[in-house]
Amino acid sequence: MKFSPLKTASLRQLVLSSFVLALIPVAVLMWQSHSALTRISQQAVEQANTSASSVRRMEQMQNQVVDIERAIRQYAVLKTSSLATVAQNHVSSYQQLLPQVCQTMRDASLCQQQTITLQQLAQSFPQQQSEHIEPLLQQLRQQQGRLSQQIWQQLELQLAAQQRDVASAQQQLTWQTVVLVILTLLLVIWGSRRITRPVAMLERMIRAIGRQQAFPDQRVRGPKELTELGEQLRTLAARLQQLEALRLILLRHASHELKTPLSSIREGCSLLSEQLVGPLNAQQQEVVSLLNGSTERLSQLTEQLLDYNRLLQQAKPVLKWHVAEPMITECIQDHALSLQQQGQRVRLECQVEQLYTDAMLFRRILDNLINNAQAYGAADSEVCIRLSQQEQQWWLEVMNQGHPIAADQRERLFEPFQRGQSPRRDRVQGSGLGLSIVADCARLLAGKAEIIDTTEADVCVRIRLPLPEDIE
């Protein structure tokens, strides 16, 4: 089995190694830039020194030509040995400078001609051959001018070559910069993917746990901290699946096992309360009344648990078009008896003809909202049920009079097993699942449940449901 240090490295080591790898191209670029700048600087200094020396020698040679011409003309007039010596010294100085200049020139033919002219001039002027001296001086002066011109041209060529070298180095550095920057970005992307890939995998695992979906089979590969976290999430998911299976089994069996003896108890209490098995005194009737109330509460809790269990198992709603008003009216009729006992009246405002929804989920929402309004609403009051279309949504609002709900408690009431502080008026202790079922049903319908403030009632629960074109 091959060992990869990056797979077992810690998150800190991976970040540091990625940072170091990303810095390598930058360091190479800085080194190459420094080398190129140093080389260009050295070439510039050398070229400047060479140019300065060439210009200085050229000026000296031009001055020497003037001195030679002056000394020879003076000797031709005065004919003294001292002037001859001066002229000879100027010629010797020029002859010493000429090879130094000729070493840096590509074409040495002009230097050879100038050497021959100097030799002829050095031999001619002591013999006072004036017919040869004047043409030699003129030739020396002209050749010096061409020599100076050739030196200037050579300096310009060297300067142009240096500029091309600088441009070439600049272009090379530009391409190297582009390549190394791209390489740096690739290394940064590679290093970031080494971190983001396991993080994305952890996110999918957490999302699968939160949404109760199938847990990914792929394991997290990357830093050991993230790998260990992935294994812990895998263990947690397995544990949650076991607990979920146990919970479903418990709810299914407990609810089923409770319904049969509960029905027998209710029938027995009904027989006793109707005194079919014999007359009862006042105390016995009070005991039977308490038994009837407890039996009713236990039956209601069992039905809510079964309803909540069925809701959790429903993965996708079945959406169809339904006529809105008959569906709501049927639900109100089922709650008519409990509403009459509290002296409550129902006012229906159905402003929508048809509703695109899941009938079972919509009925659960309406059942629980009406039951909540009946349980917590004021006696001899009105319960308003309104279905309208607002803001590209369907709004189902159930309003009742009673104790207003504080703003800081509204979100908490939609959580399972959370009850409000207001007392129930039906003498039955609630389970805290009613509004939770409402919120879960609304979520399955891609909607939202909320408690809002309104001037029409003390309590208003609004369900926002999307129109068909907004449903994915």
Keywords, please?
Helix Hairpins; 68% helix; 5-stranded mixed beta sheet; 3 domains; two-stranded antiparallel sheet; disordered N terminus; 472 residues; alpha+beta; single chain; Heat Shock Protein 90
Note down, in words, how this protein is organized:
With 472 residues, the chain is α+β, with helices and mostly antiparallel strands. The protein folds into 3 domains: 188 residues; 91 residues, Helix Hairpins; 155 residues, Heat Shock Protein 90 (2-Layer Sandwich), CATH 3.30.565. It is 68% helix and 9% strand. It contains 11 helices and 7 strands. The strands form 2 sheets. Strands 2-4-5-7-6 form a 5-stranded mixed sheet. Strands 1-3 form a two-stranded antiparallel ribbon. α8 packs across α10. The longest helix is centred in the middle third of the chain and has 81 residues. It starts with a helix and ends in a 6-residue tail after the last strand. 19% of the residues are buried. The N terminus is likely disordered. It holds the Pfam family HisKA. It catalyses: ATP + protein L-histidine = ADP + protein N-phospho-L-histidine.
The sequence of SSEs as H and E is HHHHHHHEHHEEHEEHEE
Q: Could you give the distance between the termini?
A: 48 Å
What is the average per-residue confidence, as pLDDT, rounded to a whole number?
A: 79
Q: How many extended strands? A: 7
Could you give the order of strands across the largest sheet?
Answer: 2-4-5-7-6
Q: What percent of residues are in strands?
A: 5-15%
Low-confidence stretches: 1-7
Helix content: 55-70%
Largest sheet: 5 strands, mixed
Global structural class = alpha+beta
Gross geometry: rod-shaped
- Tally of individual helices: 11
Integer-rounded radius of gyration: 53 Å
Tally of separate domains: 3
